[in-house]
Specification:
Number of helices of chain A: 7
Shape of chain B: globular
Helix content of chain A: 55-70%
Radius of gyration of chain B: 18 Å
Distance between the termini of chain A: 43 Å
Strand content of chain B: under 5%
Oligomer: heterodimer
Order of helices and strands of chain B: HHHHHHHH
Strand content of chain A: under 5%
Number of strands of chain A: 0
Distance between the termini of chain B: 33 Å
Number of helices of chain B: 8
Structural class of chain A: mainly alpha
């Protein structure tokens, strides 16, 4: 099975549910963050619970992935400062836009074109983060020879 | 159909999203997340070929479109609910504020390695403590900031 086609199918299903549950509406997320309505917390909670059980069932039965036949597994990360600082920035943006990377794509599909501004911002933010990190890495350690050659234009 | 025009109840939407996370892992052995598609798009600009996550994001757009078509109908708009009352409905203000908010989410999500979907749902389900810390942080910050914004700009409270 083609991985890109699989991505398209899963994305379509996800986008449909996001739109259907109105997670694409400013007011739904605003009311969630204002703690006026529990629905979005319940959606996230029941999604986590369903997936948590589901993936452990897959692992318990040593299921293999359909696309490439590798045993289903996952790695988990331990918390580092970047998770804290990054998520704090993310939370500020989320509270203002009342949408996040998934729902904003569904917004555009639904014809809520204010989402295009948010998407432009997302892309710019990713580029800025990558540039800053690349610069810090270069400053933090001596360059390997190949990379140094690129920098000086050899 | 009434079921499709009405807002999906949480007990339907939540478990379906959970199933999508599980099935994606089953089919592809890859963790679910929404930010990756945008990351691949920026890498595309840098010359790397787009991967499956770009197709996933494209799918989310298509899914949103379908949800409107089978629901209340597709009606394009730049209106954005209570946002327009809080920040004003001028397109210039909207562009600046939403671009800024998007940039914070893009940079923050990239740094933290995930968003509301990747950390908040998938990572939480997989039992990642990094995702737990990330989710607790962006939830707390977003809830706090929303109160502050409502106090500053009025939120229809």
């Amino acid at each position: 099975m083609n991985l890109n086609a699989v991505g398209l199918i899963f994305g379509t299903a996800f986008g449909f549910v996001l739109g259907w549950a109105r997670l694409t509406d400013y007011d739904v997320i605003h009311d969630m963050l204002m703690l006026r309505e529990p629905d979005v917390f319940l959606i996230m909670g029941s999604a986590i619970a369903t997936a948590a059980v589901g993936v452990r069932v897959l692992r318990a039965f040593s299921v293999r992935s359909i696309v490439d036949g590798t045993p289903v597994k996952w790695a988990v990360d331990t918390p580092r400062p970047k998770h804290l600082w990054g998520s704090a920035l993310f939370g500020v943006g989320w509270s203002v836009a009342a949408t996040c990377p998934g729902p904003v794509a569904a917004q555009v599909g639904r014809g809520q074109f204010a989402g295009l501004f948010t998407i432009a911002g997302l892309l710019a933010g990713i580029v800025v983060c990558d540039r800053v990190r690349a610069r810090r890495r270069r400053a933090a350690r001596p360059l390997p020879l190949g990379e140094a050659a690129n920098v000086v234009g050899l | 159909m009434n079921l499709l025009t009405a807002r999906a109840p949480w007990y339907l939407a939540g478990p379906v999203i959970g199933l999508i996370v599980m099935l994606l892992l089953w089919v592809t052995n890859k963790p679910f997340g929404a930010l990756g598609g945008y990351i691949e798009l920026t890498e595309w600009a840098g010359g790397r070929r787009p991967g499956w996550r770009v197709y996933f994001t494209l799918g989310v757009v298509v899914g949103g479109l379908l949800s409107a078509v089978v629901g209340l109908g597709w009606t394009p708009t730049v209106a954005y609910g209570t946002f327009d009352h809080m920040f004003g409905s001028s397109l210039a203000v909207k562009a600046v504020v939403l671009f800024g908010a998007g940039a914070l989410m893009g940079a923050g999500g990239r740094l933290a390695g995930g968003c509301t979907a990747g950390h908040g749902i998938c990572g939480m389900a997989l039992g990642s403590t990094a995702s737990l810390v990330s989710t607790a942080t962006f939830m707390a910050v977003a809830v706090g900031m929303a109160q502050l914004l409502a106090w500053l700009f009025g939120g229809g409270a």
